[in-house]
What we know:
Number of strands: 12
Structural class: alpha+beta
Largest sheet: 12 strands, mixed
CATH class of the largest domain: Alpha Beta
Amino acid sequence: MKKIITLSDKKVIEYFFRKNTCLHIYPIGDLDEFFFKHTKWFAFTEGSEILEIAFLYTGVDLPVLLAVCDGDLKNMKDLLKGISPELPDKIYTHLSPGLETIFSNKYKSEDFGRHYKMCLLKNFFLDMNERDNIRRLLSEDIEEIRKFYADAYPGNWFDIRMLETGKYFGYYTDGKLTGAAGIHVYSTEYKVAALGNITTHPLHRGKSICRKLTSALCSDLFKTTDHIGLNVHVDNTAAIECYKKTGFNFSGEYHEYLFVKK
């Protein structure tokens, strides 16, 4: 008999997602206690077998639902239908293509487009070995960072807590922050990281700053992790080329939507 349950056993959750680590770096990384206390996990089961897992992250102002699956959508659709009464009235989502129809009757939607998931393994890392003008960003740099993102990446989702990990790097030109790269997820326990907030100031693009920062960040992360992932909009060809030159490969795709209950 198939049913929906909530999960709290990290080992059970990790075992399920390790079947495809590169596709599921976000949920694996969110098992780290830094993130786990802000999560709720839902599983669609048959007997003792877990067929699909989706989870809700509430560590930010706008809750995020991640439901990305590898293969047949039927089980994930049944899971999302079952948990929909428990979801917030306003929610941001990462969904495998086709799952958005589950929300169409009860929610108004805003489509933020198709995204690729990319993954980098240590053996495929192409390090530029250029660290000039790059330094680690810390909590005391927050005002400079906020101003930079306001100019270079308006509307960017930035969680100040991530600076506590020490995994943010900035590129400086004549003493001014002109590029930044950081993480959305990072866990030394589970040895995964997901890059995020990577951008260059519009006046300084075309100078390989993105690649230099990504290379420096990945080099630092590989001291404590084995898998590094990221999400990138399919239309962001410049960023995709930057990541491919660093050694990243495609591992999947999904859509991002904002849903607001009607």
